[in-house]
Structures are given as C-alpha cells and as structure tokens.
C-alpha cells in the first residue's frame, strides 16, 4: 500500500550524508521497444550513477496480441446483448476487455521481478507530487529503512495492475502532465542522478542539456 512522503521533512535532522547506506536500484519499464536515442541517454545516466550505486535497467515489452487471448468477448453473454448494441459499442467493450487482459499480463510479469525486501516506488499520474528535493530525500532514506533494493516501476499504455498497486510502498508522479513512458524514464534518470548526492546536486548540470553544449 502506498504511503505518504511525510517523513521527508525530518530527514535532514535524522540522517547525515555519512549515515546513508546506498542500495542498488532497479528500474522496471513496461512498453514498446525504445528508440536508439533514448537508450543511449539511459546508458549514459547509468554510467554516471555507477559512482553512487548499481543500477539495473529492465524492460518488459508490452504485447497486446498475447494479452488479447486473455480477454474473451461474447455479445451473446449475459453482460452484452447484441440486439441492443451497435458495432461501435461492441468494439468499445472488446477493446476494454483487451486492455484489462494486457494490464493483468503486464502486472504478473512485473510482480515476478519484485523481491520481498524491495522498496517499491510506483510512478503514476495520480501519485504524490514530489519535487527534486523530496526525491533526493527519498533516495537517502530508503537505505536506512532495511530495504536491500530500491525499485521504480513505470507502467505500460494502460497503467499499472492491481497487484503492483497493493505492493507499492509509495506512489509518486514526475509531472502533472501525462508523459510517454520513454520520456518518463528520462525524467526519472535525471532526478536519480541529481538526487543521489544531495551535497553536489546543485552543481550538477542536466545531462540532456549538457550533451549539446
């Protein structure tokens, strides 16, 4: 179950930089194959983050064709009456079932990669609105909470499944705007890079901006 970030306000008093125990990070991303440009930037961030901790970038490919086999639509069922539904309504119901089946399939795949001692952060448009300072405080605090790994989950085109929503320790959003999963990944990598060393964060330029300078 997701929890709030109320602990962030007291982190500066509770932990000094020397007391932080860095933990490995895993990023689970559900979606289509990344563009080559995005992948190159992600790899550059991972190289920079290795100075602080290990980062594992795991991709789960969304597969609507496989998921459709899990959603069976029948206009003759007790829930749907073909006599009172036009073709557009039938297509909408079929698409809804396909989307639900795809989310459940992706949800199962994600849960198989989560350990019992992971501290799970679910990225969701309805999550808590956090800034860079709060993200940095979260990164520092997790190592002192007994977790062996920090795990970030970026959902597929239809969002996260119920299993992950129940398992997540916290749900946050990176922006009030809806982000493509590839853009969300880049924003997350930038915030991890900036937040990992709070004492140097203000001196670190954005990698995306500095690449062209």
**Global morphology:** globular
Q: How helical, in percent, are the residues?
A: 25-40%
Q: Give the N-terminus to C-terminus distance in angstroms.
A: 43 Å
Return residue spans where pLDDT drops below 50 for at least 5 consecutive residues.
1-19, 68-93, 201-213
The spatial strand order of the largest sheet comes to 2-1-4-3-5
What would you call the quaternary organization? single chain
Mean pLDDT: 76
- Percent in strands: 15-25%
Largest sheet properties: 5 strands, parallel
Rg, Å, rounded: 20 Å
Structural class: alpha/beta
Structure description:
This protein is of the alpha/beta class. About 40% of the residues lie in helices and about 15% in strands. It contains 8 helices and 5 strands. A 5-stranded parallel beta sheet has the order 2-1-4-3-5, with helices on both faces. Helix 2 packs parallel to helix 7 and helix 5 packs across helix 7. The longest helix has 25 residues. It is globular. The N terminus and C terminus are likely disordered.
Topology at a glance:
Blueprint: H1 11-14, E1 25-31, H2 36-49, E2 55-61, H3 64-68, H4 87-111, E3 118-129, H5 132-142, E4 149-154, H6 162-167, E5 170-173, H7 181-196, H8 207-210
Parallel strand pairs: 1-2, 1-4, 3-4, 3-5
